[in-house]
Write a structure and sequence with these properties.
heterodimer; A: mainly beta; 5-stranded antiparallel sheet; 4-stranded antiparallel sheet; 2 helices; 2% helix; globular; B: alpha/beta; Rossmann fold; Hypothetical Protein Yjia, Chain: A,domain 2; 2 domains; 9-stranded mixed sheet; 7-stranded antiparallel sheet; 26% helix; 26% strand
Chain lengths: 418, 356
């Protein structure tokens, strides 16, 4: 019996919720609306504003959408992957150079690495170079960060990176792309004990009922306010702050690992420099919220060597949302991505929560985050989850909000009204 | 609850940011993340139900939860009804309606809990249709503290409907009807098409005498601009730009006075809060309503304050002055508390706070 049978008033996955967000456009991206977690804005030389979007999985590589008029988005470019065993779920850009991550289904496959494209003509991206990360135990690059035009910070395997456990195959790598034709690695860091030959014991793996998701890098954020720091989500390893003042030898500053008892998959760590706060997410990766609770955490970062959790961002009751379809729980945040075409906020946090949609929180009192806006579109037609699965969010400096569905729904463009 | 003192600000000062003022995040709208509430008052037959029903069918009215706070009146649901449980009726256009048979607070608390767990559609505003005979004071009071429902709901505006045909007689005999008019942020004259413009103009003259600060609109055949139920009018300027001090504008037979405090120069928060402390603690029952913007030293935008009797809503700093004109403008509606006394109190407290 469905919730709606029990209560004819019950809200369901077909309901549309728009609370202090106003939907101004929706684009299904030519039928390929299963989107990943790479979103970046380019303002092209002719003045057009182009939103570059990574796809969740094959067959598409990336899609560029002209959002100069956010009410009338137009697809200007959509590219294909070479085969169906590779995905490119992450991208970033600086100026007219686009970096795209490639991850294969199995270790040893290709292409596993990063492409750099010249996108000065958005309709016709030109490959500048491919940085190969393939290897016997490498699946390539899951996520990358590229905001200063000089270095790409990535969660990646490497030909010579042989983990003790295949699940730990992606470490933190720093790639110098100042000559985009010849990218080369300048440094890397991995959780001690995860690489074969390390002189410390491997980390204790998560045991059932917790899923063992791996000790590997996910988001690898570096900001101009602190170019000597990298802020990592390290999946089952928790959050990690590194000193990268010497890029060839990153040093651990701190690690906060709340799992177990939590279920790991720490995904994103965003520092709020002015306020000495950190915002951290754990990704929900199991349908029906079976890995609940996956939360957005607020941490006191006044002492970066000792981050202290002080609050989480409230979500609606899990028992009402777990069965709406697909996943329910935290995933991506708008990360105050550095760049001229990005919003910046230290008092409002915006995140995606799969079937929980897009939610904004006022954290002006960081001890009591308060939800101030919600956007949950109805289930997209043909979604195998039977519900929306909002996956990522980007906000531009015009305060236009872009969010994408993980499975089929494509791009939703919103205005903030709080 | 006493008027809020800002003892908690030291917690926020641990994590300061340029975008955060002493009252928290600077908000685009007064409601912030709270659910806006419109209170609709008006005597029986004034056309509340017709007006609300038409509003629900508009784009602005989509996703409205209507709480009918009265006994035995016809419902708004006959035309729109889709399905219902015992307490709540689901209407078209994402709207729902529930009847607060016993306690308005219980009904509102249940609504907000049901909204969070998805037991009712995710409504985006609440319209409370009050009983025709009701004194609106207690309803407004429901939202005037963040201890109870004020943390979830924001009283956006109170609208009073006035039947042009019968208003002059009703206002003459009924203190409740006068109070509905006096406490309203906006007045809507209904049935103008029946009463004729001449009578409507006399009614409006009477309304202006009772409540000189609320804009007056006319509903023709039950039609109004839906924004009239959504957005509070900006607090009125008093005595034109540059005015300083109080301007007495109305005094009523019930001992009720209504006046505007206007001051162009920003004032420090402390003397304002202390003066309001004195008023709320000593004369709370006679402070029927105080609402408006305060120009606070050190704040970029206006600080919105609302008091009902001894209760104070949490102040909110807005991102910008709505019409670009800075300056404190507060509407006071008081009983047996002359504006001269309030003016002298504010002057004295400001003088104590800032000796020459």
């Amino acid at each position: 019996m469905s919730d709606r049978d029990k209560n004819p008033l019950a809200s369901g996955p077909q309901e549309s919720i728009a609370w202090n967000f106003k939907l101004i456009a929706h684009h299904e991206l030519n039928g390929f609306g299963g989107m990943g977690e790479g979103m970046a804005i380019q303002v092209a030389k002719d003045g057009r504003r182009i939103l570059w979007l990574a796809h969740e999985s094959a067959p598409k590589n990336f899609t560029a959408v002209d959002v100069s008029d956010p009410r009338k988005p137009k697809v200007v470019c959509q590219t294909d992957l070479p085969h169906s065993d590779v995905r490119s779920n992450s991208l970033e850009l600086t100026g007219d150079i686009l970096a795209v991550a490639y991850q294969t289904k199995q270790p040893g496959m290709k292409p596993a690495g990063m492409d750099l494209f010249d996108i000065s003509t958005p309709e016709n991206p030109k490959l500048i170079s491919h940085f190969d990360c393939s290897g016997p135990m490498s699946r390539g690059v899951h996520q990358l960060w590229f905001c200063d035009g000089e270095y790409v910070h990535m969660a990646a395997g490497a030909p010579d990176f042989l983990p003790n456990n295949q699940l730990d195959d992606q470490c933190y790598r720093i790639i110098d792309v100042r000559n985009p034709s010849k990218p080369h690695e300048v440094g890397r860091w991995w959780l001690p004990g995860t690489r074969q030959g390390d002189n410390v014991a491997p980390p204790v793996r998560h045991k059932p009922p917790l899923p063992d998701m791996g000790f590997r890098a996910h988001n690898t954020n570096v900001y101009p306010q602190r170019p000597d720091r990298a802020y990592l989500g390290y999946l089952d390893g928790g959050m990690i702050i590194l000193d990268i003042s010497n890029k060839s030898a990153p040093q651990l500053v701190s690690r906060f690992d709340h799992s177990p008892p939590y279920a790991g998959f720490t995904h994103t760590l965003v520092p709020l420099f002015e306020r000495n706060l950190l915002v951290m997410t754990d990704e929900s990766v199991v349908d029906r919220a079976q890995d609940w609770p996956k939360l957005v955490w607020i941490l006191d970062g006044r002492d970066e060597t000792n981050p202290i959790p002080i609050a989480t961002c409230p979500l609606p009751p899990v028992d009402s949302w777990a069965n709406r379809g697909g996943r329910f729980g935290a995933h991506n945040l708008f990360e105050n991505t550095p760049g001229p075409h990005s919003w910046y906020s230290e008092d409002v946090i915006i995140g995606t929560f799969f079937n929980g949609g897009l939610r904004a929180y006022d954290i002006s009192n960081p001890y009591q985050p308060k939800e101030i806006a919600t956007f949950v579109p109805p289930a997209p037609p043909l979604s195998k989850a039977g519900a929306i699965q909002l996956n990522d969010v980007f906000v531009d400096e015009r305060q236009i909000v872009y969010t994408v569905d993980r499975l089929v729904g494509g791009l939703y463009i919103l205005e903030m009204d709080f | 609850m006493r008027a809020r003192r800002f003892v908690w600000t030291h917690m926020l000062e641990l994590f300061p940011a340029r975008t955060i003022g002493p009252f928290g995040r600077r908000q685009r709208h007064a409601r912030g993340g709270k659910i806006p509430v419109t209170v609709v008052t008006g005597f029986l037959g004034a056309g509340k139900t017709t007006l609300v029903r038409r509003f629900l069918a508009t784009e602005e009215g989509r996703g409205t939860a209507v709480v009918v706070n009265e006994f035995g009146a016809e419902g708004i649901d006959d035309a729109l009804i889709r399905t219902s449980t015992d307490e709540t009726v689901l209407l078209g256009n994402g709207c729902l309606c529930c009847t607060a048979r016993t306690d308005l607070q219980v009904a509102l608390r249940a609504l907000v809990a049901d909204r969070a767990r998805g037991a009712v559609p995710h409504f985006r505003r609440v319209v409370i249709e009050t009983s025709g005979l009701a004194d609106p004071g207690p309803v407004l009071q429901t939202f005037a503290t963040d201890r109870a429902l004020g943390g979830e709901f924001h009283l956006e505006l109170a609208v009073a409907l006035v039947d042009a045909e019968t208003a002059l007689a009703t206002l003459a005999w009924s203190a409740e009807a006068r109070k509905q008019v006096i406490l309203a942020d906006r007045l809507i004259v209904t049935k103008v098409d029946v009463a004729g413009t001449a009578l409507a103009e006399r009614v409006e003259e009477r309304l202006r005498a009772l409540n000189p600060h609320a804009p007056i609109e006319r509903a023709i055949f039950g039609r109004i601009d839906p924004q009239s139920l959504v957005a509070a009018p900006a607090p009125p300027m008093a005595g034109g730009a540059g005015a300083r001090g109080f301007v007495a504008e109305a005094a009523h037979s019930d001992g009720i006075a209504s006046f505007v405090l206007a001051q162009e120069a920003p004032m420090p928060w402390a003397p304002f809060a202390r003066a309001m402390d004195v008023l709320t603690s000593l004369r709370g029952p006679d402070l029927l309503r105080v609402k408006g913007f305060v120009a606070v030293e050190g704040c970029q935008g206006p600080v919105l304050v609302q008091f009902v009797q001894h209760l104070a809503d949490a102040p909110v700093e807005l991102q910008a002055w709505p019409d670009g004109r800075r300056g404190t403008r507060l509407v006071f509606i008081t009983r047996n508390l002359p504006e001269r006394v309030v003016r002298d109190l504010f002057a004295a407290v400001q003088a104590v706070a800032a000796p020459p």
